Amino acid sequence: MVQHIGIDLGTSTIKVTCGDTKYLIPSIIGETNPGWGGATTDKTLENNMVLIDGLERWYVGELARLQSEIKRPLASEGQMKSAEETFIAIKAALGLLIDKSEEDVIIATGVPVATSQEIMKNLSKMLKGTLEIHLENDATKKKRRLTVNIEKTLVMPEPYGTYYKTLKDRGEESAVDTVLIDIGHGSTDILTMYQGRPMRTASGSLIEAIDTLTSRMAKALQEKTGSIIRPFDLMTVLQKQRESVMVAGQTYSIKGLKEHYSKQISKVIVDEVMRLISTLPPDAFVEYYIICGGGAYTFGDVIKDAIIEGKLVASPENVLIPEDPVLSNAYGFELIAKTK
User: pTM for this one?
Assistant: First the structure.
């Protein structure tokens, strides 16, 4: 039986889905830092992955984020940096996902919109044929060896997964002109679909994203409290949808700050969308605007309102936020893999 795997290679997180199984892995690899693995209470392979490739060893995902002194983010400024380093992370993800050796798989994966065609082609070439995967659990030292037969790999711009799934869910029988706004941690991707194809001249990436919001909020809180506040710590607060934080024993409301900066950042994103769609041919008719990615929880409603107020869409009902905007790309790519 063939396994169909969807992968969304985000700037902060790799999302992997296959049937009922799903993983979210930090989009980072790092050099090994041996000697501390046995001290952790978390013994899961997901958070303790070491990929072994000949004489080389790499920490992948959460282990790299926490333990590597030299870290290598797989993406920055809206694009994958290296096909070779991305290949390392995908091999580890496949080793985590697949239970037994000699599995046949078809992969559909998405990369940030600004990723070069050369990197996309190289990654596609690497993810073909027979792969030998050797993983080690850094906490337990247990090893997993697998042989995976990749029948086919498709590499596309990551918001395309959400585009495909949304059209399928809505029963669309033909391609529909659509703008997708994929808001991640470190960048926002804008993908414009015209006559069923990605329109590169009307697509692009912005550095304004969730990280922009937490950085501005942290700076404002520091000025107010006189204490050092890390933007990363505010990320957890946003994920838990809390409206206050505790700094130096005092509680401070962040509701006003969040609303103020969310509107500022959303305006920048919508302005860029308007600039990009102005390059579309006169016969284009954008029927849907779809907002996805982890930032949809924070910016989604504000951007939706701005699109409706700007009369960029015929009906407010055609501005969509998927039920699970974080995994919607990966789910869509899994559907695409099944069609192949």
Answer: 0.89
Q: What is the mean pLDDT of residues 151-170?
A: 95
Instruction: List 93's β-bridge partners, or say none.
Output: none
Angstrom distance (rounded) from CA 232 to CA 163: 30
To the nearest whole number, what is the mean pLDDT of the chain? Answer: 91
Residue ranges of the chain that CATH labels 3.30.420.40: 2-157, 174-323
CATH code for the structural domain at 174-323: 3.30.420.40
Q: What's the confidence (pLDDT) of residue 228? A: 85
pLDDT at 269 over 70: yes
Question: Is residue 11 within 8 Å of 187, Cβ to Cβ?
Answer: yes
Q: How many angstroms separate the CA atoms of 233 and 239, rounded? A: 10
Q: Which fold has domain 2-157?
A: Nucleotidyltransferase; domain 5 (3.30.420)
